[in-house]
Each structure stands twice: as C-alpha cells, then as structure tokens.
Known about the structure:
Elements: E1 10-14, H1 24-39, E2 44-51, E3 55-58, E4 64-70, E5 72-73, E6 81-82, H2 87-96, E7 100-103, H3 108-119, E8 124-128, H4 135-140, H5 149-163, E9 169-172, H6 175-183, E10 189-191, E11 214-218, H7 227-241, E12 244-248, H8 254-263, E13 267-271, H9 277-283, E14 287-289, H10 299-306, E15 311-314, E16 328-331, H11 336-348, H12 353-358, H13 365-379, H14 386-389
Parallel strand pairs: 1-2, 1-7, 2-4, 7-8, 8-9, 9-10, 11-12, 11-14, 12-13, 14-15, 15-16
Antiparallel strand pairs: 3-4, 5-6
Helix pairs in contact: 1-13, 2-3, 7-11
Amino acid sequence: xxxxGTGAPVLCDVTMFWSPIGGGVRKYIERKRDWLRRRMPGVGxxxxxPGPSSSASEGPGSGHVTCVVRGLSLPFAPGxxxxxxxxxxxxxxxxxxxxxxxCGSPFVMxxxxxxxxxxxxxxxxxxxxxxxxxxxxxxxxxxxxxxLRRPLIGVGWPYLARRYRDSRKVLLGASGIEKVLxxxxxxxxxxxxxGIDLSFFSSEGPGTRPEPPVLLFVGRLSEEKGLSAVMxxxxxxxxxxGARLRVVGDGIMMKRLLRAxxxxxxxxxxxxxxxxxxxxxxxxxxxxxxxAPAETLGFCFLEALACGIPVVGIExxxxxxxxxxxxxxxxxxxxxxxxxxxxxxxxxxxxxxxxCRQAVEGYDWEPSIxxxxxxxxxxxxxxxLLEGAGT
Length: 391
C-alpha cells in the first residue's frame, strides 16, 4: 500500500476503541472496510488499533492493512487497551502516509494523529465522536470516586476542544449531541449516523414475545451503561408484573451480576452473544431497557427495534428523542422508579413489531457508510474517487 502522493489513495481509521469481543466502533470499521473493498477496490485502507503486541497483517481487500500497536490493558474495560505513548502510532502513519484519517477516540492515538498532521498538513483528518467524553467517563466513576466527576467534566471539555482543533469535521451519531458540543465550543460538526444490518436484525424469525415479560439489557457491564439502575428497575417490576431480567454483555460488573443471579432465578446472564443468536435474543424479549446517560448512538436501540421490540432509554442519550416516542420511550433520569414506570407502560401496551421495525428503516449500514465516506472524500478534495463507487 503506497503512501501520500504516490499510487492509490489511502484511507485510514485510528481508534483505541477496539476489543476482541466486538463493540460498536469495531463493528462500524469492519463494515466500512467491507464497503471499501466492494465499492472502491482501488483505494487502500489502513487500520491502526491497540493490542497485546505490535503486528501488521494484510486484510481481505487489496491494499487493506491492519497495524496493531502495543497497548496496556484497561482493568475497568476488559478487552480494551491504550498505547502508553503516541510514538508507535506516529511511525505507522509516517510509513503509510494516508490521505484521509478518521479518528475514533480522542486520547493518546489522537495525539499521534495531530503530530503526524504537523508533518503533513495536507492530510485530511476527521473525528467520529463515538465516546460521550467526558460525560460518559464521569458516569463510570463509582461511589468512591464520585468526587472526581465535576473536576473530570471541568477539564474534559477543554481537552476535547483542543484535541479536535485540527479536525476538518467532527462526525456525530445523533443530532441531540450537536447542541452539547456547540455549547462547549466544538462547532465544526456534522450529524452522520451509523447503522445496522437490517437484513440480519429482523422482526421475522425464531423467537416470540415471552410471558411473563422479559426486560433485556445489552451492553458493557459497567456503571456508565446504567446497569445498576436497570437492575433496580427490574427489582421494582418483578413483584408487580412478574418480569424477568436478561443481560447480554461482559465487563467489570460481571461478578456482581453473577452473584445477583445466584440469589434471584429471574436474572438470566448470557454473557457475550455472537452470530445468529443475537436477533433471536431480541425477538424473545419484551423490551430493551438502557440507563446509559450519555450514549452517542446506541446500536442496541436500533437492533432491538429492527427485531420488533420497543426501547426505554434516558432522554438526551443517543437516539432517544430522535426515534418515535411510541417505540422509544425516554425518561428524564436514570432512576429505577422512572425506568420501571416506563417499562411497565410498554409492557401493558406494547407497539406492534412492524411499527418498531418501521422506525429504523433508514438506519441500514450501506447508505450510512456511503454518506460518511462521501463526506470525507469531498472535504479532502478527493471527490473524483466517488464516481467509480456510484455515490
């Protein structure tokens, strides 16, 4: 794969949000790489992510290379790593000299991109605001560190503004987040939602609405995802409706969850679920409930609705407020009583699966990725590449 100024153009994705067991960012980049392979075979793609040791490998497409830089594991986020310095990432960027870089995390690797950009200012750099930093990180602090939340938010927003200063555009998953960033001085934004595979996540197939009702939680098992509040809502509902709680995911709160499941047979812990099983899990649940206060999109919201079940979430988080309120109910706070009330309302009067599905018909991967790639290439002055892709 040739570098900037010679041979085929090279697009690059850089992110620390990369786990062996998946995650929304990994899902997006893998879909993007597949789209580039099919629609723009003459364009190279460089992926830089952290891992246990450094390596480089060829991808499934011609000119598709994955470079893994050594990263330290994060005890509070199993499977995720962060490079101890920006040096190795800068070296990879120098080696391949990509024309367009999309950053998916604003930390050490983003600093490496800024260093490279000072050497090659003609490079077009974009950021996708995948992590609701600093709010999401403040929410992750447990009770013992609650005193750190205000200082983290106080320094976090100026830090983010500095990181994004050399970005051509900051891409956002939902329109509600744009107002928040603008209020913090980050105004060079554009809303470019990601998507899901609507043919894979479907309301048609095995799995039927259960009785008694099943509340479904999908995501990282951590405080910033609101798992404690969801468990509290379930405790309130099980006596009133006989509800059960089904949990999909892995994370730092797994041991606590397993202990709770030992004491309560109404809690079902599935761990990480992959492949064909996940749509069935959605279809055999009554509703999805999330208490994450700071989602940037919420893939599980889209997946659940595509499979025909409604969603309860926190107002202002991700697509809550953007999706129709009859299928995506927003509550003002992540309190167990508020969540339980919204869930009970949907249990009593649940929308038809076809109505849930209809609400997300515009969120398919193919057009979502096409819009993002087209936007970046036009901003980079490479719009001519779009002709062969049919955009």
